[in-house]
Specification:
468 residues; mainly alpha; two-stranded antiparallel sheet; two-stranded antiparallel ribbon; globular
Protein backbone atom coordinates (compact mmCIF):
# COMPACT_ATOMS: atom_id res chain seq x y z
CA UNK A 1 0.00 0.00 0.00
CA UNK A 2 1.23 3.49 -0.86
CA UNK A 3 2.37 5.54 2.14
CA UNK A 4 0.01 8.33 3.21
CA UNK A 5 1.21 11.37 5.15
CA UNK A 6 0.10 12.20 8.66
CA UNK A 7 -1.32 15.50 7.41
CA UNK A 8 -3.44 13.72 4.82
CA UNK A 9 -4.74 11.28 7.45
CA UNK A 10 -5.66 14.11 9.81
CA UNK A 11 -7.43 15.96 7.00
CA UNK A 12 -9.35 12.80 6.10
CA UNK A 13 -10.34 12.39 9.74
CA UNK A 14 -11.46 16.00 9.94
CA UNK A 15 -13.48 15.65 6.75
CA UNK A 16 -15.33 12.63 8.09
CA UNK A 17 -15.86 14.39 11.43
CA UNK A 18 -17.21 17.45 9.61
CA UNK A 19 -19.74 15.46 7.59
CA UNK A 20 -20.75 13.40 10.64
CA UNK A 21 -21.17 16.60 12.67
CA UNK A 22 -23.57 18.01 10.11
CA UNK A 23 -25.38 14.72 9.62
CA UNK A 24 -25.95 13.68 13.21
CA UNK A 25 -28.07 16.68 14.17
CA UNK A 26 -30.74 15.78 11.62
CA UNK A 27 -31.31 12.10 12.57
CA UNK A 28 -31.25 13.08 16.25
CA UNK A 29 -34.16 15.49 15.80
CA UNK A 30 -35.86 13.07 13.38
CA UNK A 31 -35.75 10.22 15.92
CA UNK A 32 -37.20 12.39 18.67
CA UNK A 33 -39.81 14.14 16.52
CA UNK A 34 -41.07 10.88 15.00
CA UNK A 35 -41.88 9.50 18.45
CA UNK A 36 -43.23 12.88 19.58
CA UNK A 37 -45.58 13.00 16.58
CA UNK A 38 -46.78 9.49 17.36
CA UNK A 39 -47.58 10.55 20.93
CA UNK A 40 -49.36 13.71 19.76
CA UNK A 41 -51.54 11.86 17.26
CA UNK A 42 -52.26 9.09 19.76
CA UNK A 43 -53.39 11.58 22.43
CA UNK A 44 -55.55 13.40 19.89
CA UNK A 45 -57.25 10.17 18.81
CA UNK A 46 -57.86 9.19 22.42
CA UNK A 47 -59.01 12.55 23.81
CA UNK A 48 -60.28 14.43 20.78
CA UNK A 49 -58.53 17.60 21.96
CA UNK A 50 -57.60 19.47 18.79
CA UNK A 51 -54.61 21.20 20.39
CA UNK A 52 -52.65 17.94 19.93
CA UNK A 53 -53.74 17.71 16.29
CA UNK A 54 -52.59 21.31 15.73
CA UNK A 55 -49.21 20.52 17.28
CA UNK A 56 -48.92 17.47 15.05
CA UNK A 57 -49.44 19.56 11.92
CA UNK A 58 -46.92 22.11 13.14
CA UNK A 59 -44.12 19.70 14.03
CA UNK A 60 -44.60 17.37 11.07
CA UNK A 61 -43.33 20.21 8.87
CA UNK A 62 -40.11 20.38 10.87
CA UNK A 63 -39.86 16.60 10.76
CA UNK A 64 -40.15 16.55 6.96
CA UNK A 65 -37.24 18.98 6.56
CA UNK A 66 -35.06 17.12 9.06
CA UNK A 67 -35.79 13.79 7.43
CA UNK A 68 -34.84 15.05 3.98
CA UNK A 69 -31.60 16.67 5.10
CA UNK A 70 -30.70 13.63 7.19
CA UNK A 71 -31.04 11.29 4.21
CA UNK A 72 -28.96 13.53 1.94
CA UNK A 73 -26.17 14.10 4.46
CA UNK A 74 -26.07 10.40 5.36
CA UNK A 75 -25.50 9.26 1.77
CA UNK A 76 -22.31 11.31 1.54
CA UNK A 77 -20.82 9.60 4.57
CA UNK A 78 -21.21 6.16 3.05
CA UNK A 79 -19.20 7.15 -0.02
CA UNK A 80 -16.28 8.26 2.15
CA UNK A 81 -15.71 4.67 3.23
CA UNK A 82 -14.64 3.99 -0.34
CA UNK A 83 -12.88 7.26 -1.13
CA UNK A 84 -10.96 8.16 2.05
CA UNK A 85 -11.01 4.90 4.02
CA UNK A 86 -10.72 2.17 1.43
CA UNK A 87 -8.35 0.07 3.55
CA UNK A 88 -10.92 0.04 6.34
CA UNK A 89 -13.53 -1.11 3.82
CA UNK A 90 -11.17 -3.85 2.64
CA UNK A 91 -10.55 -5.05 6.20
CA UNK A 92 -14.01 -4.67 7.77
CA UNK A 93 -16.37 -4.39 4.80
CA UNK A 94 -17.52 -8.00 5.21
CA UNK A 95 -19.03 -6.96 8.55
CA UNK A 96 -19.95 -3.27 8.33
CA UNK A 97 -21.35 -3.65 4.80
CA UNK A 98 -24.06 -6.19 5.74
CA UNK A 99 -24.93 -4.28 8.92
CA UNK A 100 -25.58 -1.09 6.96
CA UNK A 101 -27.45 -3.10 4.33
CA UNK A 102 -29.74 -4.47 7.04
CA UNK A 103 -30.43 -0.87 8.05
CA UNK A 104 -31.57 -0.05 4.51
CA UNK A 105 -33.63 -3.24 4.11
CA UNK A 106 -35.45 -2.82 7.42
CA UNK A 107 -35.47 0.77 8.66
CA UNK A 108 -35.17 2.82 5.49
CA UNK A 109 -37.70 0.77 3.53
CA UNK A 110 -40.11 0.94 6.48
CA UNK A 111 -39.73 4.70 6.76
CA UNK A 112 -40.00 5.26 3.02
CA UNK A 113 -43.04 3.01 2.75
CA UNK A 114 -45.08 4.91 5.35
CA UNK A 115 -43.58 8.41 5.12
CA UNK A 116 -45.79 9.44 2.20
CA UNK A 117 -48.93 8.37 4.05
CA UNK A 118 -47.74 10.18 7.16
CA UNK A 119 -47.02 13.46 5.35
CA UNK A 120 -49.77 13.54 2.74
CA UNK A 121 -52.40 11.02 3.80
CA UNK A 122 -54.26 12.96 6.48
CA UNK A 123 -57.23 13.70 4.20
CA UNK A 124 -56.84 10.53 2.14
CA UNK A 125 -56.77 7.61 4.59
CA UNK A 126 -58.58 6.76 7.81
CA UNK A 127 -57.41 7.95 11.18
CA UNK A 128 -56.29 4.51 12.29
CA UNK A 129 -54.17 3.92 9.20
CA UNK A 130 -52.62 7.37 9.44
CA UNK A 131 -51.70 6.81 13.09
CA UNK A 132 -50.25 3.41 12.18
CA UNK A 133 -48.13 5.07 9.46
CA UNK A 134 -46.78 7.65 11.91
CA UNK A 135 -45.92 4.90 14.39
CA UNK A 136 -44.18 2.85 11.69
CA UNK A 137 -42.02 5.83 10.71
CA UNK A 138 -41.10 6.30 14.37
CA UNK A 139 -40.23 2.62 14.74
CA UNK A 140 -38.21 2.85 11.53
CA UNK A 141 -36.06 5.64 12.94
CA UNK A 142 -35.30 3.51 16.01
CA UNK A 143 -34.50 0.45 13.89
CA UNK A 144 -32.12 2.62 11.86
CA UNK A 145 -30.45 3.69 15.09
CA UNK A 146 -30.16 0.02 16.08
CA UNK A 147 -28.19 -1.04 12.99
CA UNK A 148 -25.98 2.03 12.73
CA UNK A 149 -25.05 1.86 16.41
CA UNK A 150 -24.40 -1.88 16.08
CA UNK A 151 -21.93 -1.25 13.26
CA UNK A 152 -20.21 1.59 15.06
CA UNK A 153 -20.13 -0.28 18.39
CA UNK A 154 -18.51 -3.27 16.73
CA UNK A 155 -15.62 -0.99 15.74
CA UNK A 156 -15.19 -0.17 19.44
CA UNK A 157 -15.65 -3.66 20.88
CA UNK A 158 -15.13 -6.07 17.96
CA UNK A 159 -16.03 -9.74 18.33
CA UNK A 160 -17.60 -12.61 16.40
CA UNK A 161 -15.07 -12.70 13.52
CA UNK A 162 -11.76 -14.11 12.36
CA UNK A 163 -9.00 -12.35 10.44
CA UNK A 164 -8.25 -14.31 7.26
CA UNK A 165 -5.79 -12.95 4.68
CA UNK A 166 -6.00 -9.49 6.16
CA UNK A 167 -9.79 -9.33 6.21
CA UNK A 168 -12.36 -9.63 9.02
CA UNK A 169 -14.55 -12.65 8.23
CA UNK A 170 -17.80 -12.97 10.26
CA UNK A 171 -18.27 -16.25 12.13
CA UNK A 172 -21.01 -15.29 14.64
CA UNK A 173 -23.48 -12.60 13.58
CA UNK A 174 -25.24 -12.57 16.93
CA UNK A 175 -21.94 -11.77 18.64
CA UNK A 176 -21.17 -9.12 16.03
CA UNK A 177 -24.52 -7.35 16.30
CA UNK A 178 -24.79 -7.58 20.08
CA UNK A 179 -21.18 -6.73 20.82
CA UNK A 180 -20.29 -5.72 24.41
CA UNK A 181 -20.67 -1.94 24.06
CA UNK A 182 -23.73 -1.99 21.79
CA UNK A 183 -26.58 -2.03 24.38
CA UNK A 184 -25.07 0.89 26.30
CA UNK A 185 -24.33 2.96 23.22
CA UNK A 186 -27.77 2.29 21.70
CA UNK A 187 -29.59 3.34 24.87
CA UNK A 188 -27.34 6.37 25.34
CA UNK A 189 -27.86 7.62 21.77
CA UNK A 190 -31.61 7.00 21.63
CA UNK A 191 -32.22 8.80 24.91
CA UNK A 192 -29.91 11.61 23.78
CA UNK A 193 -32.07 12.05 20.67
CA UNK A 194 -35.22 12.26 22.79
CA UNK A 195 -33.62 14.84 25.09
CA UNK A 196 -32.28 16.90 22.18
CA UNK A 197 -35.77 17.00 20.68
CA UNK A 198 -37.38 17.82 24.02
CA UNK A 199 -35.18 20.88 24.52
CA UNK A 200 -35.61 21.94 20.90
CA UNK A 201 -39.40 21.80 21.37
CA UNK A 202 -39.20 23.41 24.82
CA UNK A 203 -37.05 26.27 23.56
CA UNK A 204 -39.52 26.86 20.74
CA UNK A 205 -42.35 27.12 23.26
CA UNK A 206 -40.33 29.44 25.50
CA UNK A 207 -39.50 31.68 22.54
CA UNK A 208 -43.15 32.06 21.57
CA UNK A 209 -44.30 32.80 25.13
CA UNK A 210 -41.54 35.39 25.59
CA UNK A 211 -42.76 37.09 22.41
CA UNK A 212 -46.37 37.15 23.63
CA UNK A 213 -47.64 34.15 21.63
CA UNK A 214 -49.01 32.42 24.72
CA UNK A 215 -51.50 29.99 23.16
CA UNK A 216 -52.77 26.65 24.50
CA UNK A 217 -50.76 24.77 21.85
CA UNK A 218 -47.55 26.56 22.81
CA UNK A 219 -48.17 25.81 26.49
CA UNK A 220 -48.81 22.14 25.79
CA UNK A 221 -45.60 21.65 23.81
CA UNK A 222 -43.55 23.46 26.46
CA UNK A 223 -45.17 21.43 29.24
CA UNK A 224 -44.56 18.11 27.47
CA UNK A 225 -40.91 18.95 26.88
CA UNK A 226 -40.34 19.77 30.56
CA UNK A 227 -41.94 16.50 31.66
CA UNK A 228 -39.57 14.70 29.29
CA UNK A 229 -36.55 16.52 30.75
CA UNK A 230 -37.68 15.82 34.31
CA UNK A 231 -37.91 12.05 33.90
CA UNK A 232 -35.48 11.25 31.08
CA UNK A 233 -32.44 13.43 31.90
CA UNK A 234 -31.72 11.54 35.18
CA UNK A 235 -32.18 8.23 33.33
CA UNK A 236 -29.58 9.38 30.82
CA UNK A 237 -27.14 10.00 33.69
CA UNK A 238 -27.65 6.42 34.91
CA UNK A 239 -27.14 5.05 31.39
CA UNK A 240 -24.01 7.18 31.04
CA UNK A 241 -22.58 5.72 34.25
CA UNK A 242 -23.20 2.16 33.01
CA UNK A 243 -21.65 3.07 29.65
CA UNK A 244 -18.60 4.42 31.47
CA UNK A 245 -18.13 1.16 33.38
CA UNK A 246 -18.38 -0.76 30.10
CA UNK A 247 -15.77 1.53 28.52
CA UNK A 248 -13.49 1.05 31.52
CA UNK A 249 -13.59 -2.69 30.91
CA UNK A 250 -13.04 -2.70 27.14
CA UNK A 251 -11.26 0.62 26.40
CA UNK A 252 -9.32 1.59 29.52
CA UNK A 253 -7.02 3.97 27.62
CA UNK A 254 -10.06 6.02 26.63
CA UNK A 255 -11.13 6.35 30.27
CA UNK A 256 -7.63 7.41 31.30
CA UNK A 257 -7.63 10.09 28.59
CA UNK A 258 -11.13 11.30 29.49
CA UNK A 259 -10.05 11.67 33.11
CA UNK A 260 -6.71 13.30 32.23
CA UNK A 261 -5.21 10.82 34.69
CA UNK A 262 -1.52 10.09 34.10
CA UNK A 263 -0.30 7.95 37.00
CA UNK A 264 -1.46 6.22 40.16
CA UNK A 265 0.11 6.24 43.60
CA UNK A 266 0.38 2.72 44.92
CA UNK A 267 -2.16 1.93 47.59
CA UNK A 268 -4.18 5.13 47.10
CA UNK A 269 -7.53 5.51 45.31
CA UNK A 270 -7.55 7.61 42.17
CA UNK A 271 -8.71 11.24 42.35
CA UNK A 272 -11.26 12.85 40.04
CA UNK A 273 -9.84 15.76 38.08
CA UNK A 274 -12.63 18.29 37.65
CA UNK A 275 -10.73 20.75 35.49
CA UNK A 276 -7.24 21.08 34.07
CA UNK A 277 -5.26 21.05 30.85
CA UNK A 278 -3.88 17.64 29.82
CA UNK A 279 -0.51 18.00 28.08
CA UNK A 280 0.27 15.01 25.85
CA UNK A 281 3.94 15.94 25.46
CA UNK A 282 4.66 16.78 29.10
CA UNK A 283 2.57 13.77 30.24
CA UNK A 284 0.76 15.70 32.94
CA UNK A 285 -2.42 17.69 33.49
CA UNK A 286 -1.63 21.33 34.22
CA UNK A 287 -3.71 23.41 36.67
CA UNK A 288 -5.53 20.29 37.85
CA UNK A 289 -8.41 20.80 40.27
CA UNK A 290 -9.11 17.40 41.74
CA UNK A 291 -11.15 15.66 44.41
CA UNK A 292 -9.25 12.86 46.19
CA UNK A 293 -10.57 9.30 45.75
CA UNK A 294 -13.68 10.38 43.80
CA UNK A 295 -12.36 8.93 40.53
CA UNK A 296 -12.20 5.46 42.05
CA UNK A 297 -15.63 5.87 43.64
CA UNK A 298 -17.31 6.89 40.36
CA UNK A 299 -15.57 4.51 37.98
CA UNK A 300 -14.87 1.47 40.13
CA UNK A 301 -17.53 2.02 42.81
CA UNK A 302 -14.91 1.30 45.45
CA UNK A 303 -12.03 2.85 47.39
CA UNK A 304 -9.57 0.00 46.94
CA UNK A 305 -9.38 0.05 43.13
CA UNK A 306 -7.65 2.51 40.84
CA UNK A 307 -8.67 3.82 37.44
CA UNK A 308 -6.23 3.32 34.53
CA UNK A 309 -3.38 5.79 34.15
CA UNK A 310 -2.24 7.08 30.75
CA UNK A 311 1.41 6.36 31.48
CA UNK A 312 0.59 2.67 31.74
CA UNK A 313 -0.09 2.66 27.98
CA UNK A 314 2.54 3.14 25.24
CA UNK A 315 2.51 6.71 23.84
CA UNK A 316 1.37 5.45 20.44
CA UNK A 317 -1.74 3.87 22.04
CA UNK A 318 -2.91 6.95 23.94
CA UNK A 319 -5.97 8.92 22.76
CA UNK A 320 -5.73 12.71 22.65
CA UNK A 321 -6.59 13.59 26.22
CA UNK A 322 -6.36 17.34 25.59
CA UNK A 323 -9.50 17.20 23.42
CA UNK A 324 -11.68 14.48 24.91
CA UNK A 325 -11.03 15.65 28.49
CA UNK A 326 -12.99 18.80 27.65
CA UNK A 327 -15.59 17.39 25.27
CA UNK A 328 -16.59 14.89 27.93
CA UNK A 329 -16.95 17.63 30.54
CA UNK A 330 -19.00 19.72 28.15
CA UNK A 331 -21.37 16.80 27.65
CA UNK A 332 -21.66 16.18 31.41
CA UNK A 333 -22.19 19.88 32.17
CA UNK A 334 -25.03 20.08 29.66
CA UNK A 335 -26.54 16.90 31.10
CA UNK A 336 -26.56 18.44 34.58
CA UNK A 337 -28.20 21.58 33.21
CA UNK A 338 -30.89 19.39 31.63
CA UNK A 339 -31.58 17.79 35.01
CA UNK A 340 -31.74 21.29 36.51
CA UNK A 341 -34.21 22.38 33.80
CA UNK A 342 -36.53 19.51 34.67
CA UNK A 343 -36.33 20.07 38.43
CA UNK A 344 -36.74 23.85 38.12
CA UNK A 345 -39.72 23.34 35.85
CA UNK A 346 -41.36 21.00 38.37
CA UNK A 347 -40.86 23.59 41.13
CA UNK A 348 -42.43 26.33 38.98
CA UNK A 349 -45.27 24.04 37.89
CA UNK A 350 -46.18 23.39 41.53
CA UNK A 351 -46.44 27.17 42.01
CA UNK A 352 -48.37 27.75 38.76
CA UNK A 353 -45.51 29.86 37.37
CA UNK A 354 -44.19 27.57 34.63
CA UNK A 355 -45.44 29.82 31.82
CA UNK A 356 -44.85 33.17 33.52
CA UNK A 357 -41.31 32.90 34.91
CA UNK A 358 -39.29 34.87 32.38
CA UNK A 359 -35.88 33.85 33.84
CA UNK A 360 -36.84 30.20 33.40
CA UNK A 361 -38.19 30.77 29.89
CA UNK A 362 -34.95 32.53 28.92
CA UNK A 363 -32.99 29.62 30.41
CA UNK A 364 -35.03 27.16 28.32
CA UNK A 365 -34.44 29.26 25.22
CA UNK A 366 -30.68 29.13 25.80
CA UNK A 367 -30.94 25.36 26.37
CA UNK A 368 -32.54 24.86 22.94
CA UNK A 369 -29.38 23.57 21.19
CA UNK A 370 -27.99 21.91 24.34
CA UNK A 371 -29.06 18.40 23.37
CA UNK A 372 -27.45 18.61 19.95
CA UNK A 373 -24.25 20.11 21.38
CA UNK A 374 -24.11 17.34 23.97
CA UNK A 375 -24.52 14.70 21.23
CA UNK A 376 -21.68 16.23 19.21
CA UNK A 377 -19.46 16.46 22.29
CA UNK A 378 -20.24 12.85 23.17
CA UNK A 379 -19.43 11.62 19.67
CA UNK A 380 -16.13 13.49 19.62
CA UNK A 381 -15.32 11.93 22.99
CA UNK A 382 -16.13 8.36 21.99
CA UNK A 383 -14.63 8.49 18.47
CA UNK A 384 -11.42 10.35 19.33
CA UNK A 385 -11.17 8.20 22.43
CA UNK A 386 -11.00 5.11 20.20
CA UNK A 387 -7.90 6.44 18.44
CA UNK A 388 -5.36 5.44 17.30
CA UNK A 389 -7.61 2.50 16.33
CA UNK A 390 -10.37 2.33 13.73
CA UNK A 391 -11.27 -1.24 14.69
CA UNK A 392 -10.15 -1.31 18.31
CA UNK A 393 -7.15 -3.56 18.78
CA UNK A 394 -7.15 -4.81 15.17
CA UNK A 395 -6.68 -1.97 12.68
CA UNK A 396 -5.05 1.39 13.29
CA UNK A 397 -6.28 4.60 11.68
CA UNK A 398 -3.03 5.00 9.75
CA UNK A 399 -3.61 1.58 8.18
CA UNK A 400 -7.26 2.28 7.29
CA UNK A 401 -6.82 5.35 5.09
CA UNK A 402 -6.79 5.47 1.29
CA UNK A 403 -3.49 6.40 -0.40
CA UNK A 404 -4.53 9.98 -1.14
CA UNK A 405 -2.36 13.09 -1.21
CA UNK A 406 -2.79 16.09 1.05
CA UNK A 407 -3.83 18.20 -1.96
CA UNK A 408 -6.57 15.78 -3.00
CA UNK A 409 -8.11 15.65 0.47
CA UNK A 410 -7.78 19.41 0.95
CA UNK A 411 -9.72 20.12 -2.25
CA UNK A 412 -12.54 17.75 -1.33
CA UNK A 413 -12.63 19.10 2.24
CA UNK A 414 -12.98 22.70 1.05
CA UNK A 415 -15.76 21.67 -1.33
CA UNK A 416 -17.57 19.86 1.47
CA UNK A 417 -17.35 22.87 3.77
CA UNK A 418 -18.66 25.27 1.10
CA UNK A 419 -21.49 23.04 -0.12
CA UNK A 420 -22.58 21.89 3.35
CA UNK A 421 -22.56 25.41 4.74
CA UNK A 422 -24.73 26.72 1.90
CA UNK A 423 -27.07 23.75 1.50
CA UNK A 424 -27.67 22.71 5.08
CA UNK A 425 -27.27 26.23 6.41
CA UNK A 426 -30.21 27.25 4.21
CA UNK A 427 -32.17 24.19 5.35
CA UNK A 428 -31.59 24.96 9.02
CA UNK A 429 -32.51 28.62 8.49
CA UNK A 430 -35.74 27.59 6.75
CA UNK A 431 -36.56 25.14 9.54
CA UNK A 432 -36.07 27.84 12.19
CA UNK A 433 -38.27 30.17 10.15
CA UNK A 434 -41.06 27.61 10.28
CA UNK A 435 -40.56 27.21 14.03
CA UNK A 436 -40.92 30.97 14.42
CA UNK A 437 -44.40 30.88 12.82
CA UNK A 438 -45.75 28.80 15.70
CA UNK A 439 -48.60 26.25 15.72
CA UNK A 440 -51.91 27.35 14.21
CA UNK A 441 -55.43 26.12 14.79
CA UNK A 442 -56.97 24.44 11.75
CA UNK A 443 -60.35 25.90 12.68
CA UNK A 444 -59.02 29.45 12.68
CA UNK A 445 -56.84 29.04 9.56
CA UNK A 446 -58.62 27.14 6.74
CA UNK A 447 -55.58 27.49 4.46
CA UNK A 448 -53.93 24.74 6.49
CA UNK A 449 -56.37 22.22 5.04
CA UNK A 450 -54.87 20.05 2.34
CA UNK A 451 -56.29 17.80 -0.34
CA UNK A 452 -57.54 17.89 -3.89
CA UNK A 453 -59.09 21.24 -4.84
CA UNK A 454 -57.92 22.95 -1.67
CA UNK A 455 -55.40 25.74 -1.31
CA UNK A 456 -52.58 23.48 -0.21
CA UNK A 457 -52.14 20.30 -2.27
CA UNK A 458 -48.56 18.98 -1.81
CA UNK A 459 -46.92 17.81 -5.02
CA UNK A 460 -43.45 16.96 -3.73
CA UNK A 461 -42.03 15.82 -0.37
CA UNK A 462 -40.49 19.14 0.69
CA UNK A 463 -43.82 20.89 0.12
CA UNK A 464 -45.01 19.13 3.27
CA UNK A 465 -43.24 21.94 5.10
CA UNK A 466 -46.08 24.15 3.89
CA UNK A 467 -44.48 27.58 4.21
CA UNK A 468 -47.36 29.80 3.22
Amino acid sequence: MEEISTTAINLARFQFAFTVGFHIIFPAITIGLASYLTVLEGIWLRTGQNVYRDLYFFWVKIFAINFGMGVVSGLVMAYQFGTNWSQFSYFAGGITGPLLTYEVLTAFFLEAGFLGVMLFGWERVGRGLHFFSTAMVAIGTLISTFWILSSNSWMHTPQGFEVVDGRAIPVDWFAIVFNPSFPYRLAHMAVAAFLATAFFVGASGAWHILRGNDTPAVRVMLSMSIWMALFVAPIQAIIGDAHGLNTLKYQPAKIAAIEGHWENIEGEPSPLILFGWPDMEAEKTHFAIEIPALGSIILTHSLDKQIPALKSFPPEDRPNSTVIFWTFRLMVMLGLLMILAGAWGLWLRARSKLYSSRPYLRFLLCMGPSGLIAILAGWVTTEMGRQPWVVYGYQRTVDAASPLTTTQITISLVLFIVVYTILFGAGIAYMLKLVSLGPKSRESDPSLEGGVGKMRTPARPMSASGDR
